[in-house]
Amino acid sequence: MDLQQRYRLHPQVALRPEPFGALAYHFGNRRLSFLRSPEILAVVEGLDDATSVAAALEAAEIDAGRWAAFERALATLEESEMIIAVAGESGCAA
Questions:
Q1: pLDDT digit string, tens, across residues 8-31
Q2: Are strands 83-90 and 5-9 parallel, antiparallel or unpaired?
């Protein structure tokens, strides 16, 4: 997971908010994932509008000391194809 890369929710994924965070269901591969906090839900929902993962974390007001945990959670979501990198786009200036 590159924090400077831009990501988005996979187009075949639906999020259902829950008191604990959310359920994410991928209609293509039929996987179900649990987003175990409202904060990770806020980050995932913010990915589409953010220029990078780091920008999404900042927009969700996640303390920088907690970014490593969120990075691991987002990497797991990427592995299960819940979120995908936006090809050819990076949040860092060239």
A1: 999 999 999 999 999 999 999 999
A2: antiparallel
Q: Is 70 contained in some domain? A: yes
**Residue range of the domain that includes 68:** 5-82
**Tens digits of per-residue pLDDT, 60-80?**
999 999 999 999 999 999 999
CATH of the domain at 73: 3.90.930
What's the total number of domains in the chain? 1
| pTM of the entire predicted model | 0.88
Residue 37 lies inside a defined structural domain of this protein: yes
Number of residues that make up the chain = 94
CB proximity list for 79: less than 8 A, separation 6 or greater: none
Closest to 53 (Cα-Cα) out of 84, 31, 80: 84
